[in-house]
Amino acid sequence: MFGIIRPCRHRLSERLQASWMAHLCGLCLALRDDHGQLARTATNYDGLIISVLVEAQAAAGHAATGAGRRTAGPCPLRGMRTASVARGEGARLAAAVSLALASVKIRDHVEDQDGVFARRPVAAGARAVTRRWDRKSSGSASVVGFDTSVLLDAAARQGELERELPTGGSVLLVTEPTETATAAAFAHTAVLAGRPGNEAPLAEAGRLFGRLAHLLDAAEDQEADAAAGAWNPLAATGTDRAEAERLCRDAVHGIRLALRDVELADRALVHILLAHETERAVERVFGRPGHAACRVGHEPGTAPATDQAHSHAPHGHPQLDPTGSNPYQSPPRHDPGQAPPQDPGAPVPPWVPQGPGFTPPGAPPPNRRNLLAGCAAWALMGCTCQLLCCEHNDPFSGERREGFCARHDCCDCDNCCESCECCGENAQCCNDCGCCDGCDCGCDC
Question: Strand, helix or coil at 52?
């Protein structure tokens, strides 16, 4: 049940994006250092919330002064660049919890005989990996004072509940083990940060986060489980999607209320992840009535609507130029052999070819590689993940481009900061925590 939290870079300020990446890389490296290279496959967005919570409760300026950071070496997923990453007890706890949960997930796949896990050699190897990860996660968690047995016991009880659940039983009986496990992990961040007063509200936030994770996972898989004849909590308890959505939205609201009672030195990233991104997770699964996704600037061949007149024009009816000229009229005549006059500040007319492979009028042509050199550069950049993850120079044309991940972003960006209304009449909470400071979407929140 990983992947609920998926923050988009267009919804994070530069500071929050840097902090998010520091925790993500810190979790990955903590898994490698404590448990080996294979354990890095357990890196997940939801697990690093543990690391974020520990740092957010630490003394003010903890991250800013570099107390919770270290410089990591080049990594292919960062385009072979160094980076400042999170370190310390928060990253180690997040790694131990992520590894234990990954072990539980693999064990579930083996028991359900999902996909390749139905083959005996694969299942045997997977069981060996889960036993090893159980031991390693328990050992590293004990170093920071956390007992992973609460996670493993919850996983064992989960199977018993599913087998013994009476027909028409409450779906909240099924989510209870997940709630217990996440509550324990969230509460222990207060112990590591030396904030005992935060244990109770963080346990409540963790309990509701676990409920949300379980319900969203069940709702997402409901159709696939029905087609495969697999067990699904919603189908087994007779819970319809409307009731599941209500429970999910209640959980999001409860997380926000619990966070108000948590004493944090830096509230912004925690609020973004647990107050805003949880709501977006619900909307991804159940939808948002009357909402149309804005794709401007996120698909190849589209351009951001920077001009106010054009951005507010009705769809399918382009805004005419204020001078009354038609933007689609034929190009003006000029003498052959004489270059047409160009105003550097004027927009490029529609009849001028644009896009990849065309050079803007008046601009010097970029340095182009031949086919052999371009293919070699492409292979090198592909092996170091620069084509996927980083802004880079095109290996053939030399033009500056964004990575594939940036061009196919997750952002539903018709109003990146619309979540500042998450508290309704009490929207001031978002201003207090500063979660929208420096928002890249240019809104007035």
Answer: helix
- On whether the pTM is more than 0.90, the answer is no
User: Which helix (H) or strand (E) is 381 found in, with range?
Assistant: helix 371-383
Mean of the per-residue pLDDT values for the chain? 76
Q: Say if residue 322's pLDDT is above 60.
A: no
Distance between CA atoms of residues 31 and 371, nearest Å = 41
Query: Is there a contact between 138 and 92 (Cβ–Cβ < 8 Å)?
Result: no
Residue 188 pLDDT more than 80? yes
> 194 — alpha (psi -120 to 50), left (phi > 0) or beta?
left
Mean per-residue pLDDT for 179-201?
95
User: Do residues 210 and 151 make contact, with C-beta atoms less than 8 angstroms apart?
Assistant: no
- The helix/strand/coil state of 216 is helix
Whether 144 contacts 128, CB under 8 Å:
no
Q: CB-side exposure of 148: number of CA atoms within 13 Å?
A: 26
Q: Which residue has the tokens 């003498």?
A: 335
Residues 6+ apart with CB under 8 A from 411: 8, 9, 10, 11, 298
The DSSP H or E segment spanning 400 is strand 400-401
3-state SS string for 233-296: HHHHHCCCHHHHHHHHHHHHHHHHHHHHCCCCCCCHHHHHHHHHHHHHHHHHHHCCCCCCCCCC
Whole-number Å distance between alpha carbons of 155 and 178: 8
Give the separation between CA 272 and CA 5, rounded to whole angstroms: 10
